[in-house]
Structure formats: C-alpha cells, structure tokens
Design brief:
single chain, 349 residues, mainly alpha, 0% strand
Length: 349
C-alpha cells in the first residue's frame, strides 16, 4: 500500500520537526542563560511538560481515544474547583490575571470534551459530551470568569461549525492568522503604535500595570535584540515589576517575555512551535472535526498566552501537550490475515 507508506512518512516528518523545534527551544534557553547568567529552569520545565503531555496523548489517543479526553475535561474542571486560584499575585485581577490560568484550564477542558464528542461513534454519548462542554461554559460564568466564558464558548461554537468541514488547510491558516493578529495587537499596545483612544480603552481592560510590564519587556528587547537579557531576569530589570512586592517577575505575555529574555530568536522559536503543532494537526490521521477542534482550542490558548501568564503553569503546558498528542495519535493498523495460495483448478481432459 504505497499510499499508507507515504502517509506514514509524512507523519514521521512532522514528528521529527517537533523534536527539532522543542530541542531548539531548550538549547537556545541554555545559550542565552550562559551568556547573561540567566535561569533557564522555567523554559526547560515548560518544554518538558509539553513533551511529556504530547507523548502521553499519543499513547492514550491510540488506546483510549474517547475516554482520555473526556477524563481530561473532567479533571480540568475538578482542578479549578480544588484550586480556585491557580496563579500567584493578586495584582492582575482583570481580566486575565489570577484568572488567566483558570481560563486556560477551562478552555482546554472544553476543547477536550468536544474532541471526545467527535471521537465517539455513539450518538447518545456524543450529546452527553457536548453537554459537558456547555456545562463548562456555564461553570465559568458562575465563577465570574468572563475570559473563560468567551474562550470556552468560542471553542464550543468552532467545534460545532467544523463538523461538516472536509478541508483542514484553510481553517488552520485562519487560526494561525488569528493568533498572529492577537500577538501583533499586544506588540502594538506595548509599542504605542495604536491611536490614543484605542490604546486608552485597551489599557482600561488590561490594567495599566500590565501594559507597563509589556512596555518594559519591549524596552529590554530593544536593548539586546539578539540574545535578550537572559531567561528569568525580567523581574530584576523591569522597573514596573520592582515597584510591586507581589510581582511574579514576568511581563504576562509569552511573546514579549521571550523577546525580552531570549531575543528575536526566542520569539521565532515560539512561533515555530505553534506552527509545528498546526502542521502536525494538518497531517494527523484522526477525523477532521477532532483535528480542527484541537486547533481552535490551542489557538485560544495562544491568544490567552499573548496577553497573560497562562504558559507559566505546568498544568496548562501539560494539558496543551496532551490535547495535541490526542489529536495526532496514529490509529493501530490491523495486521492483514495471511493470504493462502490459490488452489489450481482441476484440468478437464
């Protein structure tokens, strides 16, 4: 079967690309830390968490393709109940501060429930899992987590909308452009590139302290565009972070943090990691609704990480890797039965 062999070879290419990208992220953090005496433990832990979650998802996606995402969705909700404040630092209370990690976990939970619904062939179970996803939206509303309501609702609507989609490419390109738009908007706010009225409105929503942290990060990035100031050193060099005794030492934006601490190469590696996930989803053998639902969920997480601190939590990194691994898991190939040699027909005299 040459078609199956070619498909397996393409998936092997995507796996090799993922190993190269994640390895480069870890290696570059060590390089920049060695140059500027930084602390790369946070980056290495995040890479390890994503890798572990992705590997577990690839395995469990083969063995339990429906039960695993359903259990992950319930575990995420239970986590927000047991740990209502997943983030340290109460100074970022609106709209993505201590609720940022909670919003990320609930978004991943809603996406996992929708993926489980598309993966099951039983109609009754599919409706039940969609009710679980809708219940996560209502749970976020009951907690007053506006951001979680918006993101979980968007994931649920996208999952329903892609049910009849057969082409993955255009949808994945649109999701990539959406993530780039949010990142560009964050960069424009930090660089004062927007009109004054729009900037003021966004500062009211994002809080002035958060925007000041973004601007400090952009200033540090301009100081050393190539290597940054070193991993984990933003809190030492940011005037805004130094003014708050409860600051966690981060700018609350993954792209800007990498730009400040690891330079332009760090930002490019982050973008490469996101593009690799979309590429792996494009090549994944799972059903298209499962793939596109996962892509929508991870895009929502990327948008959240562009304006918040969600990726600083190991739970979020593991959950993102797990969901990506579940959506790219290869199904077990059945071994064909042995073919018996044909019996020659008796000769007629």
């Amino acid at each position: 079967m040459p078609g199956a062999g070619a498909d397996g070879e393409r998936r092997s290419v995507s796996d090799a690309a993922g190993v190269a990208v994640l390895g480069a992220c870890a290696a570059w953090s060590l390089v920049t830390a060695a140059v500027h005496d930084g602390r790369p433990e946070g980056v290495l832990l995040a890479v390890l968490a994503v890798t572990a979650g992705y590997a577990a998802g690839r395995i469990l996606g083969v063995l339990l393709p429906v039960a695993t995402p359903a259990a992950a969705a319930l575990a995420g909700v239970a986590l927000t109940v047991a740990l209502p404040r997943l983030s340290p630092g109460p100074e970022f209370a609106s709209p993505l501060g201590h609720a940022g990690a909670t919003a990320a976990v609930l978004t991943l939970s809603a996406g996992a429930a929708c993926c489980a619904a598309w993966a099951t062939p039983v109609p009754a179970l599919r409706h039940l899992l969609r009710l679980l996803a809708a219940g996560i939206v209502f749970w976020a509303a009951a907690r007053g987590a506006t951001t979680a309501v918006v993101l979980c609702g968007a994931v649920l609507l996208c999952s329903v909308a892609v049910g009849q989609s057969r082409r993955r490419g255009p949808v994945l390109v649109g999701l990539a452009l959406s993530a780039a738009l949010v990142t560009g908007l964050t960069w424009a706010v930090a660089g004062r590139a927007l009109p004054a009225g729009l900037t003021g409105a966004l500062e009211d929503e994002l809080t002035a302290r958060r925007v000041d942290l973004w601007r400090d990060a952009l200033t540090l990035a301009h100081g050393d565009t190539g290597l940054g100031v070193g991993p984990g050193r933003f809190g030492e060099l940011s005037a805004t972070a130094a003014q708050s005794p409860l600051s966690d030492g981060k700018p609350h934006s993954a792209p800007l943090q990498l730009a400040a601490e690891q330079g332009v190469v760090g930002v490019l590696l982050l973008a490469a990691a996101f593009c690799w996930v979309l590429f792996a989803l494009w090549r994944a053998p799972r059903p298209t609704p499962v793939v596109l639902t996962t892509a929508a969920t991870l895009t929502a997480l990327a948008a959240l990480a562009a304006v918040g601190n969600a990726l600083s939590f190991t739970t979020v990194s593991v959950g993102a890797g797990l969901l990506a691994g579940l959506a790219t898991a290869r199904p077990l190939t059945a071994v064909p039965p042995p073919v018996s040699p044909p019996v020659p027909a008796p000769r007629v005299p």
